[in-house]
Amino acid sequence: MNISQITSEDNLQKYSNIIANKISNGFVIEERNDKLPFAVLSKDGKAVDHGFNFLICCVTLGLWTIPWIYQTYVSSKEKKILVAIDEDGNTFEENCYIG
Question: Which residues cross the membrane (predicted)?
Answer without folding.
Answer: 51-70
